[in-house]
Design goal:
Length: 301
């Protein structure tokens, strides 16, 4: 009815007022052409709404084709900076410390695809310097870097996960002897050492050590240290001793080993040292009965 009434008001005869509808501030019709039967001027027309059932549309999941590789385009320029094999640095314009962090993987191209692990991120206006470890297979060269990608995943497509590729190792199979060692003095026989790059590493060593003494006992102590004549970390120290009841020559042979995690802010050399806690020992050293090994495995694997 209201629609009819309004239509009539709108299409009323021009120049007259009888056909012009009028409403008050409350939206009620107060004047106009004669309403159809049942409508009353000055009242609000009401209608009853009938409930309707809404039918939910059927939602079909989209089909995703292909495989997600785990790599994200960096969408920026990476510029070679320096080399300290097996680690390297490149720079990115701006502060990227909220985008990259140690342990993330990167992939880039220098003629061929290369993979690295980020070991340090540092910003100094105007650039961010990214330090990366290339393991045994990948070197960053002083050349253009193209197709830069990064990943927070452990195993983005193509990234090599063989621990041997991300391990620094020293191995020696010689017998090295220190004759007439001074009690409680550390010796680096055979110059056994390993240079460990920036980053977090699981560091271990294993060696067959020996000590000889005329008396009732012989002892030998080994350690992995930041100097070739000291013990820098007791957690890397191992001990063996052979005791006896008669005054004769005693010799101790022992497979000694220790391990722990190291977090290095800068490259460091660790030395495999040997000592004895006994005075007047005949000799101490490392035997070729087994290889002397120092190993640092990248802890970000």
């Amino acid at each position: 009815h209201s629609a009819y009434y309004i239509d009539n008001a709108i299409t009323g005869t021009a120049g007259t007022t009888d056909n012009l509808a009028k409403w008050n501030a409350s939206g009620q019709l107060v004047d106009g052409p004669t309403p159809p039967s049942g409508d009353v001027v000055g009242t609000t027309d009401t209608q009853t709404l009938t409930n309707k059932t809404l039918t939910s549309p059927t939602v079909t999941s989209p089909t995703i084709e292909g495989t997600y590789s785990g790599w994200v385009e960096a969408d920026e320029t990476w510029t070679y900076a320096s080399a300290d094999d097996p680690t390297y640095t490149f720079t990115i314009s701006g502060d990227k410390t909220s985008k990259y962090s140690a342990g993330m993987r990167i992939k880039l191209t220098q003629t061929t695809a290369k993979y690295f692990i980020i070991t340090k991120v540092a910003y100094s206006d105007p650039n961010t310097t990214i330090t990366v470890y290339g393991g045994t297979d990948y070197d960053l060269t002083s050349a253009a870097i193209t197709n830069p990608y990064y990943s927070t995943q452990k195993a983005p497509y193509g990234f090599p996960l063989d621990p041997d590729k991300w391990t620094e190792t020293f191995t020696e199979t010689e017998t090295d002897t220190q004759a007439s060692p001074t009690q409680s003095t550390w010796y680096n026989t055979g110059s056994k050492s390993l240079s460990i790059p920036i980053g977090t590493w699981f560091v271990s060593y294993s060696a067959t050590a020996f000590g000889t003494k005329n008396g009732t006992a012989a002892s030998v102590i080994t350690t992995l240290s930041t100097a070739n004549n000291s013990e820098s970390d007791p957690q890397f120290t191992a001990f063996a001793q052979q005791d006896g009841a008669t005054a004769s020559t005693f010799r101790v042979f022992a497979q000694l080993n220790r391990s722990k995690y190291l977090n290095l802010a800068s490259k460091a050399t660790y030395y495999l040292n040997v000592s004895t806690n006994q005075a007047s020992a005949t000799n101490i050293g490392f035997s070729n009965a087994s290889a002397s090994v120092i190993r640092a495995v990248c802890a970000y694997l």
